[in-house]
Every structure is written in C-alpha cells, then in structure tokens.
Design brief:
The complex is a heterodimer. Chain A has helices at about 25-30, 95-105, 115-125, 130-140, 150-160, 165-170, 175-185, 205-210, 225-230, 275-285, 285-295, 300, 305-310, 320-325, 420-430, 435-445, 460-485, and strands at about 5-10, 10-15, 50-60, 60-70, 80-85, 190, 195-200, 215-220, 240, 250-255, 260-270, 330-335, 335-340, 345-350, 350-355, 360-365, 375-380, 390-400, 405-410, 420. By secondary structure, chain A is α+β, with helices and mostly antiparallel strands. Chain B is an alpha+beta fold. The N and C termini of chain B lie far apart (about 60 Å). Classes of the chains: A alpha+beta, B alpha+beta. Chain B: Its EC number is 1.17.1.4.
C-alpha cells in the first residue's frame, strides 16, 4: 500500500505525504509551490478563477480537462498531471490562447484571466474546432465581471483558428500516461495525525474500511464535500476516496430491465462522471441530456459523479426528478451483499438516505422513456448556467388516443426531498389530455407540496411554478403536435 | 504612427494571461509576516456588553488581537461625516461589522482564535428596510432637492396624470479580488500600505488619522486591483487601516485579504431605492410636470450616500427636458453595511426612475414608448437646459436615437414582436429603446483635479506616475498612449508605475469615469513642460549657421522616435540621444503636471449650477424573450450606440461599453441581494448571487461608436466611458416592462426583473405576490431582540 501521493505539476514530479495530502489543490499550488497564477475567489467552484487542467490517462493517452482546484483535495489527484496557467506558455512564448487573449483584449482587471486561459485551453484540447456556441457552453464555469465576455469569445474563436499546440506535445504524453496509469492501480493510504484517507482499488476493501470507519466521508468527485469543508460546514477527519475503485465508473446500456421486460436501461456506476454521461444521454435520453448540459459547469462535470448527486440527497439535486420519474433502481453494496432500492424509496428526509452504516452506493439503473412515454424535465434557476435550481420537475405521461394512461410527476425544491405527486398522478390517469385537465392537475399538485422561501426563491414562486409546469407541458406538446401535423 | 486612437493591448495583458501580474494576495512577504482575520458582529443592531479575548489570545500562533480601544488615533472615519468606526465601538450596527482584528502566524490560528472569542451583544431592534426607516424618520444627513418651475400647478393642469411607487434593488460590486491590504512599518513612525484601492490618498489620510501619525508618515501604494467598480473608492480603507494598525503595533508586516463571503457580508453595495413619483403630461406624452421623491438605503453610515443620491437627482432627467420638475431625496439609515459607490453612482437609479415613468405614460396613452421619448428629448436649439440649469451643449441625442432606431430596425421589430406575441402561448417577447446622457465630472468641485509625474531617462524611456489607479479599465494603457504621442515615441517606451501617494499627493479617487480625463490631461501637461525643455535643447543642437537655421524650438518635431527641425528634416537626433544630451547639459528630465477641470461648479444648497464638463451620450435597443410559465428571461439581441468622442483606445473603450452593459444587465435582471429577517445576507457568494455568465451574453450584441469630433473640452477630444454604458442596460428592464404590457393590464415591475419577479407580475392574484419588503417588514417587527449572542462568522448559515 502506497503511503504518499504522486502527482505531476507542469511536468514536474511531486511526492506528497502528510498534511498536504488533505489540502485543496489550489492551496497546494499557491502556498507550497508558489504558483500564484491560480487565483481563488469563491472557494466553492462557482467562479472558475482557480481553474487548472488535470491530465489523466485515458486509453493510453493523457486527456486534459479543466477542474476547479479550490474544491479538489490533493489526495484525489494522485496519478494526475496538473497544468496551471504557468505551465501553458513556453518560456516567454505565449500559447495561442494566451496570445489571442492579449490581442483581442480578453483581460481587463486580469483576476479571472488565468482561469479563463486554462478553461479555454482545456476546451481546445478536447474540441478541435469549437463553434461560438461551444465556446459559450464550454466557459460557463468561469465568471468575468469586467469584459462582458465578448472579447473573450473573440479570443477563443481566434485561438481556435490558429494551430493550437496540444499539451500532449508540450509535455511527454505516452510515457507519462503509462506511469500515471500504473500509479492509479495501486491503493493508497495516508495518515496525518488524526486525519486519514484510504483510496482502495477494490470494492471489497472499501466495504471493509467502511465497516471499521463508518463515519468516513466518502469522496468521488468531491465537488460538494470540497465546498462544505472550505465553508466550514463539515470537518471530516477520515476519508474514503472512490477514485480508483475499478469498474464503478462504467456506463452501459442494456435492452432488458430488472424484471426481464424489453426496455432500454441505462446503468451507471456510482462514479460515472457527468462528462462521460453527457454524450450517452444525448443519444439515449435527450431530455436528461439538457439537464446534464446545465449541471454545474464543465469544471464540475469533469469530476462530479451521478452517484454524488444521488447520495448527496439534496431536494434541489438536478438529476433526481428524472430518476424519480423513471423509477430508477439504486444499487447498494454492504457487508451483507448487494441490494437494490427504488429511488422513490431511497430518501427518508432532508438529506437522509436509506444507506446504512457500512453501505456504499455502487450504481444506478435507469429505465429510459419508452416511445409511448412523453417526458419533460424542468429546471428553473436564477441564471441558466452554473446555478443551483430554484425549482425542478419531471413530468412523464403516457397518452394514447388523447387519454392519459400513465402519469409520473416528480417535483424538486418544494419539500425536504424530491417528491412524487401521487395524488396528481392518480387524478391524471384515465383523464383526457386537455388544457383544463392539466390546469386542474397543477391545482392538485400545489396541495401536495410544502415549499419554503429561501435565497433561491419564495414559496409563492415555487407554488406558481408547480402550477405552471403542467400547463407548460401541455402547450409544449400541443406545439410539437401542431408542428408535426 | 500616432498611438492615440489605436487599439493597443492592455498595459498588463501579458502578465494577466500568464498569471504573472501579481495581486496583493500573490505578493511574497517576509517569513515573519502576520496574517489577519476579522471578527464580525453576528447581530444587526445591538450593544456590546462584553468582549472576552483572553482565551483567544492564548491560542498558539496568535500574535495579537485588537479592538476599537487599541486604535491610537481616531476610530471614526468617512468621506462626508466621520460616522463610521474602523472597529465597532460599544454599538454594533450591522451583521458583518468588524469588531476586532486577529493577527496570527497562520490562517488556521485565526480560525481557532475566532472560536475562542466570547462576544456578548444585547440585541436591539434593527431597521431593515427603507420603509421602516421612513416610518421612524431615520435619515442620514440633509436631504437633497433640485427643482424648477411650478411642478404642482403643472401636474394639476396637465391633461393626463399618473403616479406610482418604484423599487429598485441594490447590487454587489463583485470585483473578483476581495478587499485586501498589506502594511509594514518604516522608519520614524512611518507605515507603508499596499492597498487594493481606488483612492490611495484617502487610505493615506484615514490610516494617518487612525494611527495618530501625520500624513507624511504614511505611504499608500496601489499597483492594480482585481476590479473595483466603485466598491474600493472608500471601502478599501478599512482593511488598510487594520493592516497598518497591526504593522504599527507589532512592527511586523501584516496582510489582510477578505474571503469572498466576508467581503460580500461586510461591505457596502449599490443603493437600493424607493421612488415615489407623480407626472402630468399631454396627449402626445410630453411631460408638463413631474415630481419624484427618492429614498435610498444608505446603510449604517453616510459613506458616499449623499453624493450618490445627488447624482440620482442630477440624472432623473436622463435625456429629457422637464419643464416643471421637483426632485427631493433622502438617505435612509438602515442596519446594513454602509452602501457605497458602484459604477454609475446613483445615475442608474435616477435614470431608471424616469424610464419607468416614460413607459407608464406610453401604456396610458397606448403609444410606442419611443414616441414619448422623442417628444421629451432635449432639443438642440431650445428645451435644452437641465433642471439644475446647465445647458446641454453639443446635444447629439436626436441623431443618436434616430441612427440607432434605424440600424436596429426598432420599429419593424417591435411590430413583428407584438404580432408574434398574440399567437405564441409559450414565449412572451418585448423590445425597448432608450437614450442615455451621463454627466462627466465629480459633482464635488474640489475632486476635479489630477496630477502626474513624468520622468524621462537618458535612453529615452519614460516612467509615468499619476493619481489614477488601474482596476482593469485601461487608464494606464490610455495614459501610456497619450504620453508616447507627446514625444513621438512608441508606447513600449513608456511605462505606467504603481500609484503612490509618495509620487502623486492629494489625488482624487479613480472614479466618476474621469480618471483618464483628469490624470491623462495632467500627464500631457507634464509632457508639454518637458517637451518645451527638450525642444529648446534640440533647437540648439539642430540650428545651423550654414543653412541659415536659427534656434527655433517651435520648429522642432518629435516623431517616430526621432527629433528634427521641420525646416531641415534630414538632420535627426534620436529621442534617446536628445535625452542623454539633456542630462549632460544639466536639463531637468522630470516634470509634474497638474489639471483642474475648468468651469465646473454646482451649488447643492440651491440645486443649480454646471456640475459637468460635458455629457457622454448613447442609446440602446434591447429585445427580451420570457418563458410565460417560468418567467425565465433571455436577451436575444442588443444594439448599442455610444458617443464617446474620439476614442483614445477603441478596443479598451469597447471593452468598457460591453462590460458596463453586461454588468448593468446583471443589476437589471438577475442580481438579487437576499437578507433574512435578522439582517443577514443570504446571497453572499457566487453560488447564491448570480452575476451574468457567458451564456447570458446576448447572442447578437452590436456595439457601435457614434462619430463625433466636437468634444474639444477634453483630452484628445475623447469622452469618458467607464460608467455611462452601464445605464444602457436599463433598456433590458424596460423591454421586460414592454413585454408585460402586452400580457397584463397593470404591473409594478421591480428591479431586478428576475424570473420570480416576472412571474409575480404575470400571475398577480390575491394568494400570491406578497412583496418581499412587506415580508421583511413583518418579520422584523415580530422578531424579539435576542439577548447574548455568541460570535459566529457571518457565513455560518
């Protein structure tokens, strides 16, 4: 068992043990390595100023993606090559992105600029000819208060037209990838005083660890745990890091559900990242793909996992209304084996789940909408991108010959958990699919919810949205029908 | 080639993109430097009954903890009145008010020490809304009033009358670099302060007063800020004073950098306003008389609130001739951090108040608001004096409006949108146009001055220091261009040095959009002095008895790095050669320049005068698209047209226009400051406070400059650009209003027009739509004063 971390920063190898292993990557870069180009503004992954690139081996090559260094623990980055803004230029020679940002006046005060340069480089690493829309969607994780973004978009477009010199040329690739690949196949355990972290490679070891350390904080992407620690909401001392558990990142599609019926089912390992789920959803669950595309920011999606979103159990979790409406099954491994639970039964209260001490969520099976099912997902937030929802909903109806045969309604941010509006569902069944029925459904739904007023919206707002989504669903369908007619 | 007029790259762009341009948090400090952390009041209003620091002082790594009692000089400061304590003194006035400063070897020690502090506060009932302050008649300073004509009679006699109450919310500056300062002691009682400040002189003054030393014992420097937007005009003072206090007392370097949450919880913002208005107009929508009562949320001390309020009154006319008008304003005392400067400085609130009225008139008459705007627009020959008596000279507003209406196809699009709305059940669209006129100069006369120091070296390179501070707006770049052109050299031969009170004393804040105007002109004047000396020397060197050329300094040309006599261009000196020669001949190569804006004066007692040197003008058209069921807003297209005279640097100015517009759009549509009933800010970080992201940028955003060469009042015929474009974003808000006017009979749209606010307007019914302010009011009234409260960080919720 290795008792130190190995990571590369701008091509330099670093071995880390002790307290540093528990620090955030941004603190390590700034305080230990004195790489001051990486700025920390919010310390919660909501501004992107601390963006760095994390290169990890994928199919024998290093793939670099932007991450928020403020909410990544160093122990999560064992076996990664971190490239900071300092590692992008070659001596005094600016990279194409850097030069384009200078030429196109992409910086004003300069505080967000390193983060933008990094995120833009990451985008070009993975998308050779981005459109303006790709640039916009690719940079939602970076806030700028000065420029109004126009000049940054111009710089991006220009940089893309130049020959972008990939980081795989700038830094040794295959050799580094091979070394890092070996590193992440070893389990790691690090201790510093009362703090410890265990990164097993096998599920069995993880379960055993949880049995002896039931209070361990389980970390995969860490995008929420990191925020809670930075903001001193929690101060865990024992961590179980899932990042090298084999197999639990896999995404697969099968054509039979648990009962053996013919049905497309998407299975995601607990640490399937959003970035990997996005293309699969685009093809097989386009409604959910839209939600995934505004889930956090690219930096968050590059590390955040579907398992994290489920276990976190927030009533405003973006993925849950979809999972509730699809009646997804969560897979749980524990000392006494594996069990599955319908996600509709998984939450017992505000951020309380069915997981017992020593149990670990290992995956989720999501039956996908059939041809007869009509699904709409709603996410209302103050800002379209990189915002936590004020309200979420999933409406799934099966309408045959103008009659509603099946209805599933899941609503988020209107109670302590995401909830199914069961009375509304039973009202809708066997009713004609009309505007007045949907309006009546909204009136029933508001009686099933108990929203509160908070920083993201008032209870009144959430009541009104609950009413309105039913009508919106109806009019969206009417428009689609009119178009196809 | 001239540098002025070129889109030269930002002064620090290379440093920005490589991450090598340091901010205060990045600077290396001596190994014994102290880290500072503040202890904040958890209570909005109350009396400190005890503060026990003994356990906290014993925490390993804690060097010292200071409270108000440890401040050797004045604990109170403020630009208007000395009413703001550096550290709370017996009374706490808002949640997040600094009560003590902890100096420690590490951030961790500060965390541990904070937990050991026992702070007991006897809570009193706070004032948490403008309405409450009005009810209790709690106002700060004297009211402001500007009036012309007989408003009461004019309104009474007008064919149509309307009245209403308009609310607009505040806005967080959200500079990315939080408030920060570093201080270290010097000899003879001196202290050197590096501050992220728009106002080094004020930092110097307040540090001296608080520390009980003289002004010549304090040096304040600022190399750059990671954004300011007004938030560092007065409020950079507090961290600077506390760092200086620790440096003075411990003899060690001290650095204080607030976290984003601390910064947002403890510093002031753009003022929230309540405007009560009444208007009388004719059937063409021409305003005959208008009255507006402004109430701003000042927070717990005066800060700049009176000046901000004054600018609201001075911009209520926006671009319209108001024959009979009465504007009065009051700053309300509330238990919030003292609100302060923010780009626009009261102008946005004044302007949106009249744009709201214009749209209400248009709705009343069932006409296009554009017609109402045109019928009230300032004239070029008559109807062109402002309510305060200043003539609107060189008025390009009519041309700007007609040009933009044509290029944006405003009328055609409006028709199309209204037709589309009739059949679209999912989306509701709106479009609005607006003019904008913003007065340039500080309305406080003495601030209209700038000084500069220009040093030439013997290789012909130049260092320039001015009172302007660089916060990203490009003032350094522009001054570099101006100076380079004075000597006909490349801009790379000129460097702008850190702003320091040691080189530039008694400066004005970098504010009011005027820093290039003031400091750039001062730099040019210093250059003129130096050029005179150099021309004299060059004339001597270039004189030729054989060619019959007498010494004629007026014939000396500085061009392309060379100096020559225009009568004999073949004989040339390089600029560097001439500078070296000057030193050898004992000619002074350093000079200072000074500029005081001529002709500006304003009497705030009578509300009359010429507060502005000139006006920056512009216009905007915004189109919006609203989801009828969720209220979600998109802005698909914006067209901007700005008159900024002759641009010194078009790319920098374009960056200011678009950046200012998007920032204004955040204010108008998205940025929501949410407090709970205890006066705690709930939206204190980007997770909960949403500034525009890149996807909020309108997909079509056209930004054009209006050709104008007549601003001979100002340096290089340019016009100030920093603040004015922010107000063009009011068009996005009025576009929402215009959209709503097609869907509901009446509305009282507030700002920001968030999805929630829009939905509230679309579904106004009894069981919904209880206003936030009423909710706060009720909650405030019902909350019993809390007794002893343990200290907590302001973001513990």
């Amino acid at each position: 068992m290795r008792q130190h971390l190995v990571l590369y920063v701008n091509g330099q190898r670093h071995e880390v043990a002790g307290a540093d292993a528990f620090s955030s990557l941004s603190d390590y870069l700034r305080n230990r390595l004195r790489l001051m180009g990486t700025k920390v503004v919010c310390a919660e992954g909501d501004c992107g100023s601390c963006s760095v690139l994390a290169g990890r081996p994928e199919s024998g090559k290093l793939v670099y993606r932007a991450i928020d260094s403020c909410i990544q623990f160093l122990f999560q980055l064992d076996g990664a090559h971190i490239v900071t803004v300092e590692g992008l230029s070659n001596g005094h020679e600016l990279s194409a992105v850097q030069q384009a940002m200078v030429t196109h006046h992409g910086s004003q005060c300069g505080y967000c600029t390193p983060g933008f340069v990094v995120a833009m480089t990451g985008l070009l690493e993975n998308q050779p000819a981005p459109s303006e829309d790709d640039w916009r969607c690719g940079l939602t994780g970076n806030l700028c208060r000065c420029t109004g973004y126009t000049s940054i978009l111009a710089a991006g477009t220009h940089a893309a037209s130049q020959a972008h010199k990939s980081l795989t040329e700038r830094y040794p690739n295959e050799a580094l990838a091979a070394e890092l690949q070996l590193l992440i196949q070893e389990p790691v355990a690090i201790r510093d005083g009362s703090r410890s972290v265990f990164s097993p490679t096998e599920l069995k070891a993880a379960i055993e660890f949880l049995e002896t350390s039931p209070t361990a904080k389980i970390v995969a992407g860490g995008t929420d745990v990191g925020v809670q620690i930075n903001k001193r909401v929690i101060a865990p001392t024992i961590f179980l890091d899932l990042n090298r558990l084999q197999g639990l990142q896999e995404i697969s599609l099968s054509s039979k559900d648990a009962t053996g019926s013919s049905r497309s089912v998407l299975r995601c390992g607990v640490r399937a990242r959003w970035v990997d789920l996005e293309p699969v959803c685009h093809e097989h669950a386009p409604e959910f793909a839209e939600i995934v595309s505004v889930f956090g920011s690219p930096q968050i999606r590059h590390v955040g996992t579907i398992g994290g979103n489920i276990v976190n159990g927030s009533p405003i979790a973006d993925s849950l209304p979809f999972l509730f409406a699809m009646e997804a099954q969560v897979e749980i491994a524990g000392p006494r084996g594996v069990r599955t639970v319908d996600i509709n039964d998984f939450y017992h209260g505000y951020r309380q789940t069915d997981l017992k001490a020593g149990e670990l969520l290992t995956g989720v099976q999501i039956p996908l909408p059939t041809r007869a099912q009509s699904l709409s997902l709603y996410k209302v937030s103050r800002r379209r991108d990189l915002d936590i929802s004020s309200f979420t909903a999933a409406i799934l109806l099966e309408v045959v010959n103008g009659q509603v045969l099946e209805a599933r309604i899941a609503l988020g941010a209107v109670g302590p958990t995401v909830l199914r509006a069961r009375q509304t569902e039973s009202y809708l069944r066997n009713k004609p699919f009309t505007e007045s029925v949907m309006q009546a459904a909204g009136e029933i739904a508001v009686k099933e919810i108990s929203p509160i007023s908070d920083v993201r919206g008032s209870a009144d707002f959430r009541w009104q949205l609950t009413r309105n989504v039913f009508l919106k669903f109806f009019h969206q369908r009417a428009r689609t029908a009119a178009k196809s007619a | 080639m001239k540098n002025v007029g070129q889109s030269i790259e930002h002064d620090a762009a290379q440093g920005h993109v490589t991450g090598t341009a340091p901010f205060l948090e990045d600077l290396p400090l001596p190994s014994d430097a102290l880290t500072l952390g503040l202890v904040y009041s958890p209570v909005a209003c109350g009396k400190i009954t005890s503060l026990d620091l003994s356990a906290a002082k014993q925490v390993p790594g804690v060097a010292a903890i200071y409270t108000a009692a440890d401040i050797p000089g004045h604990n109170y400061f403020g630009p208007h009145f000395r009413d703001e304590p550096v550290l709370a003194d017996q009374q706490v006035l808002y949640v997040g008010q600094p009560v003590a400063v902890i100096a420690a070897e590490s951030a961790h020690a500060i965390t541990l020490a904070r937990a050991q502090i026992i702070l007991n506060i006897e809570a009193q009932e706070p004032i948490l809304s403008i309405e409450r302050a009005i009810k209790l008649e709690r106002f700060i300073g004297p009211g402001r009033r500007i009036a012309r004509g007989d408003t009461r009679t004019a309104i009474a006699a007008a064919p149509r009358k309307l009245a209403g109450v308009f609310h607009c919310g505040g806005q967080e500056q959200f500079y990315l670099e939080s408030q920060a300062a570093i201080a270290y002691p010097g000899e003879q009682g001196q202290v050197i302060v590096h501050s992220s400040t728009q106002n080094p002189t004020e930092v110097q003054h307040v540090v001296a007063e608080a520390l009980g030393v003289a002004q010549h014992q304090v040096v304040c420097l600022c190399k750059r800020m990671g954004g300011g937007f007004g938030g560092k005009e007065t409020q950079a003072v507090l961290p600077a004073v506390l760092a200086a206090l620790v440096a003075q007392k411990t003899g060690r370097t001290a650095r204080l950098v607030l976290t984003k949450d601390e910064d947002m919880c403890s510093t002031g913002k753009r003022h929230e306003y309540r405007v009560e208005w009444e208007v009388g107009f004719d059937l063409q929508g021409k305003i005959e008389g208008v009255r507006a009562n402004f109430f701003s949320n000042g927070g717990a001390s005066a800060d700049l609130s009176l000046a901000v309020l004054e600018r609201s009154l001075l911009h209520f006319d926006n671009s319209y001739y108001l024959p009979h008008v009465e504007m009065v304003g009051k700053v309300c005392f509330t238990n919030f951090p003292s609100n302060t400067a923010f780009r626009g400085f009261g102008g946005p609130q004044g302007m949106i108040a009249i744009e709201n009225i214009i749209h209400e008139i248009a709705r009343d008459l069932n006409v296009d608001p554009y017609e109402v705007q045109l019928n009230n627009l300032y004239g070029t020959e008559d109807r062109n004096t402002t309510p305060y008596g200043q003539l609107v000279r060189k008025n390009h507003l009519p041309e700007i409006m007609s040009q933009l209406a044509a290029t944006s196809q405003y009328r055609e699009r409006r028709q199309a949108i209204e037709a589309q709305n009739k059949s679209d059940v999912l989306l509701l669209r709106g479009i609005a146009i607006m003019p904008m006129k913003f007065g340039i100069s500080f309305t406080t006369k003495f601030l209209n001055q700038g000084n500069a120091l220009v040093n030439i070296y013997t290789d012909g390179t130049i260092q320039v220091s001015t009172g302007a501070t660089e916060m990203g707006q490009g003032v350094n770049t522009k001054i570099r261009q101006l100076v380079a052109d004075e000597f006909g050299i490349g801009y790379d031969r000129v460097l702008l040095m850190p702003t320091s009170t040691e080189k530039n004393p008694n400066t004005s804040p970098t504010a009011a959009s005027a820093s290039t105007d003031l400091n750039g002109t001062a730099a040019v004047r210093a250059c003129e002095t130096l050029r005179g000396r150099l021309a004299e020397l060059a004339a001597k060197k270039l004189a030729s008895v054989e060619l019959g050329l007498t010494e004629s300094p007026e014939c000396v040309i500085f061009e392309a790095g060379l100096v020559f006599d225009r009568r004999n261009p073949a004989a040339k000196l390089t600029f560097g050669q001439l500078c070296l020669q000057a030193r050898l001949e004992r000619i002074d190569l350093g000079a200072r320049g000074f500029y005081a804006t001529p002709g500006v004066d304003y009497n705030r007692e009578t509300g009359r005068g010429n507060p502005f040197l000139y006006y920056t003008m512009g216009a905007a058209v915004a189109e919006v698209e609203i989801d009828r069921f969720t209220g979600s807003l998109r802005v698909p297209r914006v067209d901007l047209l700005m008159d900024i005279g002759r641009s010194i640097n078009p790319a920098v100015d374009r960056g200011q226009i678009i950046g200012g517009f998007i920032q204004g759009m955040g204010w108008a549509t998205a940025e929501c400051l949410v407090y709970n009933e205890r006066g705690e800010l709930l939206s204190h970080s980007p997770t909960t406070y949403k500034i525009p992201a890149i996807t909020d940028l309108p997909p079509v955003l056209r930004c054009d400059l209006f050709e104008n060469n007549d601003n001979d009042e100002n340096v290089a015929r340019s016009k100030a650009v920093g603040e004015p474009p922010l107000m063009l974003a009011i068009s996005v808000w009025t576009a929402v209003k215009q959209a709503l006017s097609q869907a509901v009979e009446t509305e009282d749209l507030r700002l920001p027009a968030t999805g929630e606010e829009i939905l509230r307007q679309l579904y106004r019914r009894a069981n919904v739509a209880k206003s936030e302010i009423d909710a706060v009011e009720t909650a405030t009234n019902s909350v019993a004063p809390r007794a002893a409260v343990m200290i907590n960080s302001p973001h513990s919720n």
